[in-house]
Specification:
The chain is an all-alpha fold and about 250 residues long. Helix content is about 70%, strand content about 5%. It has three domains: about 55 residues, Multidrug-efflux Transporter Regulator, Chain: A, Domain 2 (Orthogonal Bundle); about 70 residues, Multidrug-efflux Transporter Regulator, Chain: A, Domain 2 (Orthogonal Bundle); about 110 residues, Orthogonal Bundle (Globin-like), CATH 1.10.490. The protein is built from twelve helices and three strands, in the order βααββαααααααααα. The chain has a three-stranded antiparallel β-sheet with strand order 1-3-2.
Length: about 250
């Protein structure tokens, strides 16, 4: 067991911060002595590390508490996600540094920069990490899907992935047609039915419409989907919107 001052010195944060985490129920010490001393276990220390990883990625404390207290939260999964997110953050910082270096040279008259180049590396979108964490741990449908897939064999999971990719390929062949055509709507219905089957959840049409919008708003979704054909994400968004509108009573 470690006392609060020892934990604060180890981590490099203030005692007051640890007191605050305790007060809001984010990090409760393993034990509090009769004299009021907070004592932290090794498990508490691991949780604190997890909290600080989330903070490094600009998560608010309220959201961190919500995520780590979910029954579906998996620490190993979270660490892998943190690693991925931090690599992405490093890439954006590297891009920003490159833009700064080019701007300095531009100011000295050594090079010319286009207006587009002057803003490379900036990202004013909503926290993409929080969105991904919400999708991973905060959505009931996703949790059910993960639970269902964990029960499948490797061969069964491979078959599901192949079926999903087949649907993407079919839709990619239709991406230059009208999203409200009979063929496009038949293809997008197959996608809707697939999602319901895999989540074990009655996927609402509003959620389906919002998911389609996310395919365009989140560049990571766009990049993954457009691997099957340029413009596929936008086509799917439009076709999903039409499908939701046509089937909403």
């Amino acid at each position: 067991m470690m006392k609060v001052k020892e934990v604060a010195d180890l981590v490099g944060i203030s005692v007051r911060t640890l007191h605050h985490y305790d007060e809001i129920g984010l990090l409760t010490p393993e034990k509090t002595t009769e004299s009021g001393y907070r004592l932290y276990s090794d498990e508490n220390i691991e949780t604190l590390q997890q909290i600080l990883f989330f903070k490094e990625l600009d998560f608010p404390l309220k959201k961190i508490k919500e995520i780590i207290n979910r029954p579906s939260f998996d620490r190993q999964d979270a660490l892998q996600l943190h690693r991925k997110m931090l690599l992405e953050k490093r890439q954006r910082i590297d891009n920003m540094i490159t833009t700064i270096d080019k701007t300095i040279r531009h100011a000295k008259g050594e090079i010319q920069m286009s207006n587009k180049e002057k803003f490379e590396g900036f990202d004013f979108s909503h926290n993409p990490y929080e969105q991904e964490a919400r999708e991973r741990w905060g959505d009931e449908a996703v949790e059910k899907s993960n639970a269902n897939r964990s029960k499948l064999s490797e061969a069964q999971q491979k078959e599901i992935n192949e079926n999903m990719n087949d649907i993407y390929r079919k839709l990619a062949e239709l991406r230059n047609t009208s999203p409200d055509s009979a063929e496009a709507q038949a293809g997008i219905k197959e996608w809707y039915d697939f999602l319901i089957q895999q989540t074990g959840h009655a996927y609402s049409l509003d959620a389906f419409r919002a998911l389609g919008q996310m395919y365009v708003d989140d560049e990571r979704f766009t990049k993954n989907i457009d691997q099957f054909g340029d413009g596929l994400a936008t086509f799917m968004r439009d076709a999903m919107t039409v499908y939701a509108d046509n089937n909403t009573k």
